[in-house]
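WARN retry 2 of 3 for item q-0093 after timeout on previous attempt; input resubmitted unchanged.
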Amino acid sequence: MYVDAGSSYLKLIKEVEASCKEANRAFDSVCVCAVSKTVGIDKVLEAYRAGALVFGENRPDALMEKHDQLPQATWHFIGNIQSRRIEDIVGRATLIHSVCAMRHVEKIDECAAALNIAQKVLVEVNVSGEETKSGISPREVLDFLHEAHAFSHVQICGFMTMAPQGDPAYAREVFEQLAYLKEFACSHADESVAKRITELSMGMSEDWHEALRAGATIIRVGRAIFSEEFSTNN
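OK item q-0093 returned
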């Protein structure tokens, strides 16, 4: 079955608009990040021509290739970070979602300084406590923010998390906990840090509805746009 990523994207946008209305939120308060990590540039272009402007990649090589082919789009990096590949990510990714180690903050700062930019990042938080997921623990957040503040070329804009799959109620609980953590951090962090913390990246194809209701400002949706299997089953 052929999946037109443009049509799938437009369908998704209508669903996001409806969900925003139900949640009494403005549609422009939510960024849809089209996760293109499993598809080629042809599918990316289908979605882009339909109005998708933000794409997410989890591998530096793919980010580099697609960014260079479509530089007018906005690219986010959503994968695990390797120190040796940070220089390939900084500057190409407008936002890095998955920062959870101070050594990576230091390297990002170094690369961003060389480019004379402030690299925007999100701190990945392992809210659910699953051993298979990356991220700092919620109790480490304030110390992490305080330490990262010393790096002038890194701008922490908020938090990211992933919820366990298969249980919408539990996913909603995880997302609500991250939203609470954001408010807590904004209340207790240094004012110059707190004022920049505006983003919550949470929710994917199977649970973005729950994330949106919990206050997500960025939802990361791939299969609902690009996957034949997801389009067939939904």
